[in-house]
Amino acid sequence: MQFRSIIRIVGLLLALFSVSMLAPALVALIYRDGAGVAFVTTFFVLLFCGALCWFPNRRFKHELKARDGFLIVVLFWTVLGSAGSIPFLLSDNPNVSVTDAFFESFSALTTTGATVIVGLDDLPKAILFYRQFLQWFGGMGIIVLAVAILPVLGIGGMQLYRAEIPGPVKDSKMTPRIAETAKALWYIYLSLTIACAMAFWFAGMTPFDAIGHSFSTIAIGGFSTHDASMGYFDSYAINLITVVFLLISACNFSLHFAAFASGGVHPKYYWKDPEFRAFLFIQLLLFVVCFVMLLNHHSYDTYYDAFDQALFQTVSISTTAGFTTTGFSEWPLFLPVLLLFSSFIGGCAGSTGGGMKVIRILLLTLQGVRELKRLVHPRAVYTIKVGGTALPQRVVDAVWGFFSAYALVFVVCMLGLIATGIDELSAFSAVAATLNNLGPGLGEVALHFGDINDKAKWVLIVSMLFGRLEVFTLLILLTPTFWRS
């Protein structure tokens, strides 16, 4: 294990993260809201800490192995999540505890979108911008960003890329070099963010709200600059724009790259992908069920309102964004629980969405169908094919391993919450909302997480990290085998 090289890299990345504090400081200067001191102070603190880690180890530039990559990714998310809490602690408004500051920071960086802060409409613009910006920063993965713009790392970046990018198959690259791949990802990410911000602005948002909500939409984060979330704007056009960009962001970004690589949009690249087709089918099925149920129970005055709310909430919750326009937790019968369960599926692999990813659910379904066929024809040989390609058994086994680990982490976190005194429904939904990087839950956490106890919040912070790092990246550090040389 190259510990000094790892410390050097973390120091460099921490120094890079310190620069991000200048953006909300500039917002504070523009709006004169008095919150700039916290961000300027944080900038110098993080820059000093980064230099302190980098300078003594600046000459250690060894090639990293896979184990080093996993450790860097976990260290980086925990260090950045902790560093991101400093502006909340230094600010007078909001006045939050240490636990709440850490919770808000980790929730933003992991794009969970669960908040402990109420009264967003009265917060300084700089704080609101920082929350949105932190989500955008974490959406695509700060490690990929660092590999793209920090060639001074002096390492082969594929180890970091494999540890960071979600999905069961991580060896495929869009371009031959990992730095080029990371740059391609960020060009797409940035272009989508600009397009989303412009669309929000034309639909009636202020420039500040348009930029802030484009950050959290493309990152599939769910933070808003208003307590009422997207319901504040009460606009069919804004709801539709949000739905469109959430669906785009929940797709595999390598599909976007393939579709636009030749200079024009080629829908065939999307339709050829079995995960994309399964994703669209799930979205359509959820929408139809919710729309029909809302009509039958006369939940809204007009068909158009029911259509708008059903479409927005199904896409928002199932893609793990967590934006709300209405209290979906108050919808009739099983609909709130259905939407909560849909977040376990989440977006496609290689997207900014959370959950277990559509491709894994697709593989689990195909595996289940194969076992049913084997019961009927025990001697027959069946292969699992995705997109016409037979998958090796290793991939299928890995998906089952991920599913079992995901379930184990969920159960342990839920029992931990119940042990702190939270009721069963709130505990179940809180873990589902954080492990799937969703945001809103049911029961006590339907609106925000500010009322639950501090011990529960720390359990949920761990749950966010497990969800953001797709369980195995964090779980592997807890095994004795990982630390053996």
UniProtKB/TrEMBL annotation:
It is a multi-pass membrane protein. GO terms for cellular component: plasma membrane. GO terms for molecular function: metal ion binding; potassium:chloride symporter activity. The keyword Nucleotidyltransferase does not apply. Keywords: Cell inner membrane, Cell membrane, Ion transport, Membrane, Metal-binding, Potassium, Potassium transport, Transmembrane, Transmembrane helix, Transport. K(+) binds at residues 111-112, 220-221, 320-321, 437-438. InterPro entries: Cat_transpt, TrkH. The chain crosses the membrane at residues 12-31, 37-57, 69-90, 133-163, 184-203, 236-255, 276-295, 333-353, 398-419, 458-483. It is found in: Cell inner membrane. Belongs to the TrkH potassium transport family. Low-affinity potassium transport system. Interacts with Trk system potassium uptake protein TrkA. This is Trk system potassium uptake protein. It comes from Vibrio hepatarius.
